[in-house]
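Protocol step 4 of 6: record predicted structures for both targets in the notebook before any analysis. Target 1:
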Amino acid sequence: MKFIVLLISTLNAYLGLRFFLNVIDILQTTKYSKTATAVFAILFLGMGIAGFYFSLSKNEQKIGLLIGIGPWVLALIFLLINMLTSDYK
């Protein structure tokens, strides 16, 4: 269980760092708007670090796993709302 939590947290931190580098214009690989990229950077980087914290420091694997899955669920909800409210002309 600890390995899965660390794997998901590492993936979240990596994606969060890539989104963050896109926000500050070091990378230019995103296809989303600046606002969406900033939200994804905060979600993935913050929750990836929180997953590491709960897994390694507090030794709470279930909470670490829930935190690790959290940004994926929140990002999908954010993308759905963004698609429903955007104007594609």
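Target 2:
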Amino acid sequence: MLTYITLIALVFCIISCGDDPPPPGGGGNETDPGILFTDEFGNITGGDTTDWCLNNMNGFSYGPAFPNPATVNSISVKMQTPVADTIKIYFLRNNIDTVIFYDGIVNPGAYTFQYLDSMNQFANSYQRLYLKSKHFASSQYCRFYGDVKFEP
């Protein structure tokens, strides 16, 4: 028989096991450990090393956004695939609103994708950036995602 406390814990676990929610809106401070800090070349310089779900298996890799935090309105991500694949890279603004970064077919090789926020729609905010691959099903491997902080 479930006790009241066990039932509450079970409900909390079920609720928290859903898809990752979008990151909080607003800016935050420069020492926020909730993001993975990268320089303008994509080198990791500190911060939350668990913030990005990265993959590097069987010749497929996806790296964190750089620079992060972004002090300009542009970020880049690198990926590599050993096979032709259909991928989608997008910002999840909230549970029903996405902004597409890239959506298309890539041939085997290494790629750097750059996103320019020319409308400043992400100024002073956090955004969750996802990559979906048809070749690598998210149910088999980690989902490829992480947070990007856009500073003014």
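Step 5 preliminary note on target 2. The helical segments are 4-16. The two ends are 54 Å apart (CA to CA).
Proceed to step 6 after PI sign-off.
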